[in-house]
Amino acid sequence: MAAKSWVRYGLVLAVPCVMVLSSCAGKTGGTDMAEQEMAEQLQEEEAARIAAEEEARKAEEARIEAERLAREKAEAKKKEEAKAAFLESHVPFDFDSFALNSGAMKILDAKVVWLRNNPAVKVTVEGHCDDRGTREYNLALGDRRARSVKQYLVDSGISADRIATISYGEERPLDPAKNEAAWSKNRRAQFVIR
């Protein structure tokens, strides 16, 4: 009888202890899950922050690259316009003259600036005339016009090695008409990049 009492007494004590322990075990598992969820949420937030920073960095790099390309394009356009102006502005001469007038010197001053900004460029100065006078005379006059222009450039600091001259006399008119307006256009020194 005494042994059965002890067993009952032991069961009475053991059941509450098991209940308490199981309750505590349940609370610990819940806390671990909440902490794990919180850790996962923090990781997701950190990943989102890193992704946003990366996207912002890429957008900034794209903006900087676009600005660089726009600057280069504008610079290239500016250089092309300056080159076109250099080639398209001809040096005018009075009738039967190879002297440089003030208008010619103003044009040549702009060409000197362009040549200084483009030190690798070499040019040929072509001397042209209107069609009045003999072919031989106009070839000689065209040569004197081209040499006059070259001397002005050399006196302005451009190396003579960069400048060649040639005369076409009356052979390459800009305007074939037979009037003063056409003859005036044809009396010129013209630049070609070589």
Automatic annotation (TrEMBL):
Residues 1-25 form the signal peptide. Residues 80-194 form the OmpA-like domain. The keyword Coiled coil applies. PROSITE patterns: OMPA_2, PROKAR_LIPOPROTEIN. Residues 35-84 form a coiled coil. Pfam families: OmpA. The keyword Cell division applies. InterPro entries: Bact_OuterMem_StrucFunc, OMP_bac, OmpA-like, OmpA-like_sf, Pal, Pal_lipo_C. Keywords: Cell cycle, Cell division, Cell outer membrane, Coiled coil, Lipoprotein, Membrane, Palmitate, Signal. Its main location: membrane. It is a lipid-anchor. It is found in: Cell outer membrane. Belongs to the Pal lipoprotein family. This is Peptidoglycan-associated lipoprotein. It comes from Desulfobotulus pelophilus. The gene is pal.
